[in-house]
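Friendly challenge for the regulars: who can give me the C-alpha cells for this chain first? No prize, just bragging rights.
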Amino acid sequence: MISKIILDKIATYASIEFEPSKVNYIYGGNGTGKTTFINLLQAVIVVDLELLYNLQFESITINWFQKNKKRKIEVVKK
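First reply, four minutes later:
Bragging rights claimed.
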C-alpha cells in the first residue's frame, strides 16, 4: 500500500505531499494539475519513460509497504 507521495515542482505547485488512504479523490479547477498528477503516478509505476520526459515536474517520490518492508521509488528529472 502506498504510504506517501512527494512531488516537487509539478504543474503549478512548488511541492505537494500526499498520504493516501483506502479511498481518495482528487478535485480542483481546470488547469490545477489533477490529470498531470495521475499521469505522473502512472508513468512512474509502469516506467513509461516517454511520458515521464514529457510531463512537467522536477521530482516524485513514492513510499509504500510491501510484505512489512518499506519501499521507495524516486524519479528526478534533470
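The CA atoms of residues 62 and 73 lie 5 Å apart. Residues 34-46 form the longest helix (13 residues). Your move, everyone else.
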